[in-house]
Amino acid sequence: MAKVSIIMPLYKSGNYCFEAIESVLNQSYQDWELILVDDASGDSTLHIIKEKYNDKRILTYELEKNSGPAVARNHALSKAHGRYIAFLDSDDLWRPKKLEKQLKFMISNDIEFSYTAYEKINYKGEHMGFVGVPDSVNYNVLLKTCVIGCLTAIYDSAKLGKVNMPEISKRQDFALWLKLLKKTKFAYGIPEPLAIYRVHSDGISFNKRKAAIYTWKVYREVEGFSVLKSTYYFFHYAIRGLIRAKWPTLARKLGVMHK
Questions:
Q1: Which one, of 13, 9, 115, lies nearest residue 61 by Cα?
Q2: Torsion angle of C-alpha atoms 163, 172, 146, 217, degrees rounded to 10
Q3: In this protein, which residues make up the domain named Glycosyltransferase 2-like (predicted)?
Q4: CATH number of the domain at 4-200, please?
Q5: DSSP state of 166
Q6: Mean pLDDT of 30-56
């Protein structure tokens, strides 16, 4: 197989980032580099990481001013040497065989872009349920509902190139998946939960109003859709969100259950 570049932005991440880093170190697949970019946190986390981990695969960088997660991720991407690009936020975790299973799935099926199901936990680490994913999505389907969790996505830069996240304040990952799906027809999902997403009370997945606002911004400002076209896709986004909230069993059957 080939090297994986793992992108991890840091911002005042001392409470959880060591667990995230350990989940990378514990991967059964070991040909990776972990690129940490501190977004001008102004704390000692990056210094502690440098002191704690004597591993040449862990690369650390620091931005001069706070610029947001998209800028931090894009800076990490500019330093990446791996063929496969993966994402893990500093408060999330991977299962030990995440990379091994996902890369095997991609290589054996000649897949350029993939994602997996994942588990949800709260800030205390308590289980909150599982999030299933459809077998595949294309650009038009993803516009209606983003089923790809950032902590699960991997793409092949040898085939798709290095693709930057649009530098918007929220929903950068959704916007990136859309960019990638303009380069490849489908992204393919693995139904096994290979990652663990930590839910915070102030996170965008918790605040549905904020999620809706930034989803609209992706349609209008990033994709450049007309008001009419944006309304069409936003209607689907809202209806599927209602189904997830009110009828989770139906949502799982329809493949629209996600964070």
A1: 9
A2: -120
A3: 5-128
A4: 3.90.550.10
A5: P
A6: 93
